Amino acid sequence: MESIEHINYIKAPISKVYNTLISEDGLGNIWTKKLQVKPEIGFVNEFDFDEGYITKFKILVLVENSKIVWECIESDEEWVGTKVSFELTEKDNKTKVTLKHFNWSERTDFYRWCNYNWAMFLFRMKNYCES
Fold first, then answer.
1. Distance between CA atoms of 19 and 30, rounded to whole angstroms?
2. Which helix (H) or strand (E) holds 30?
3. What whole-number distance in Å separates Cα of residue 9 and Cα of residue 2?
């Protein structure tokens, strides 16, 4: 199994970073405006990237200011069954975000493209949370 992993450091309180990752306002500003998000275990978040299908992630773990885990239940076929986790820690007024997109069946061109896009996601989140 393949895994995409990134770390970024954000000069913002951990609560702001966490709330960005669980709210329509936050995710709408860093990922897509077309979404339905609710911070509740078992809820299925929906994201529309204008690709002809809706990407759906079931929320498996929500630990306030610490950890979020989603499981992809509908999307591009390479994403279905994968999981995305966000682990947060705070030190010296910086929040460390460890993003993992794991359980990929193989390393494909789509995997490589998504790897780039997750880095851009973290870059946009850093800009959003620090402004």
1. 12
2. helix 24-30
3. 24
**pLDDT tens digit at each of 131 positions of the chain:** 899 999 999 999 999 999 999 999 999 999 999 999 999 999 999 999 999 999 999 999 999 999 999 999 999 999 999 999 999 999 999 999 999 999 999 999 999 999 999 999 999 999 999 99
Return the HEC string of 62-118. Answer: EECCCEEEEEEEECCCCCCCCEEEEEEEEECCEEEEEEEEEEECCCCHHHHHHHHHH
Distance CA 7, CA 130 (A): 16
Mapping DSSP to helix (H, G, I), strand (E, B) and coil, where does residue 47 land?
Answer: strand
Token pair 């529309």 in the structure block, residue: 48
The CATH homologous superfamily to which domain 2-130 belongs is START domain (3.30.530.20)
